[in-house]
Amino acid sequence: MSLExxxxxxxxEQYKKTDNLNTRISIHDKYSTNKxxxxxxxxxxxxxxxxxxxxELGCGTGSMWIDHRDVINRCSQVVLSDLSEGMLAExxxxxxxxxxxxxKIIDIQEIPFKDDYFDIVIANYMLYHVPDIDKAVSEVRRxxxxxxxxxxxxxxxxxIMETIVKILGVDLAYTNTFSLENGKEKLDPYFHxxxxxxxxxxxxxxxxxxxxxxxxxxxxxxxxxxLSQDEVRCKLVSCMEDGVLKLPKDPGMFVAIK
Length: 258
Fold this sequence. Notes:
The chain is of the alpha/beta class. The protein has a single domain, classed as Rossmann fold (3-Layer(aba) Sandwich), CATH 3.40.50.150. About 35% of the residues lie in helices and about 20% in strands. The protein contains 11 helices and 9 strands. Strand 1, helix 4 and strand 2 form a beta-alpha-beta unit. The chain is globular, with a radius of gyration of 18 Å.
């Protein structure tokens, strides 16, 4: 597979508004078998202490923080950033205004903060969109304090879309440039300690229309797949058992220490 997911123009178009991201989040909310939820799991991994300075890159709609505003209040500074003005506006609306919190447009390849500034940098499900991952990781390391933690959430190579591509029997030339399998080699030059954490989960989808919305919320898939939407839907329906389509999920996180 080689469906490229590091195409900056497509990514900016895909996430210029919040609709596509909300569609992608909603299917997990509806059909995930692990009811803890990925954002709640994140906070069992993060080592956030009182007075810390935190930067999140690619915060999207800020959904991760909605049930963890108490953590924001314990920090001295929280910077929630994204490339999309629409995402940041939604994040500010959902998460709220705090004295210690900023909402900023930031490109991970050019982080506008001084060296050794943050205790924690977070970049979930976004590094595979970055044109120059090496430059991005270098920038993350630069702004982290010595002993600071970089948390980078991503997926492995046996996730939802990989399984769907197999079901459809099509070659979309899919390449994840920062996966749980290949991400460590991108981090190794910059961090002395790297650990992989995995979150066990899957989907049990009962409404194929929801899954169709999820699939076609990704511009790259929509542009690359040669099958009609009716053909895609029929193939997915044919794989349902007792009204349920079971799909693996393969999420996880790199925990890297400077």
